[in-house]
Please model this.
Amino acid sequence: MAQLIDIIRVVVDPEYLTATVCVSPDAPLMTSEDLEGTTRVYNLLPTIIDHACVGDAGSTFKDCMGDTELAHLLEHVTVELLARTNMVEEVVAGRTWRELAYDRTYSIQLDCVDDVLVAGALSSAVWIVSWAFSGGAGPVPDVEATVSGLAQLVQSLPDPNEASNKEADTNAAEQDRYDDYYEGNYYDDDRYDSNRNDGRYDDDQYDDIYDDEPYEDDDLDRGPRMSRKII
Model:
């Protein structure tokens, strides 16, 4: 099966996913140039004709499906796949326009309800439209399996909020361990003074040591020094 439409660029922002697509010279630009291909899409997705479609021949996609841009058909196939996943609570809207500098290049903008879901639906729509307008060669696309695969893909991804909460819990646990360590490992000035009064620390002894000449082995490596914070 020939790839009749290529996705050459995708831009995602908080509101929209905007894809730039290029229609192959082997594909028609208008659905009216291949009504058999248009009918194949309809047979796979008959409810597509009920989509609201403002600005063309009428108020629904039925009014223009037989004579509209192939890229516009691609937009509606994507929206239909998204609706069938039952993972989109609100109505997904889209719009398509031709890039004036390039005869066969179009931009398709879709509400970004979930970037992975929308990108996956668009990619699947390209496959369906390419199949329909390349003579229907090869296996007929299994729409239900495609929709199920899209839903499973999104469900398999980690929840960003859950990942954020997990990171916060980990940071809090690390801070608790840090606090616990230093709570039990600090210099107690009172304890030092008590030990000194008991004779365990002899200030004169240490004064004598530092007054003497350096030990012969002072240049030896005594290993790393350890410091602790006094709190």
User: Anything to note?
Assistant: The longest helix spans residues 160-184. Residues 7 and 229 are 58 Å apart (CA to CA). The helical segments are 35-44, 70-84, 115-132, 143-156, 160-184, 189-197, 203-211.
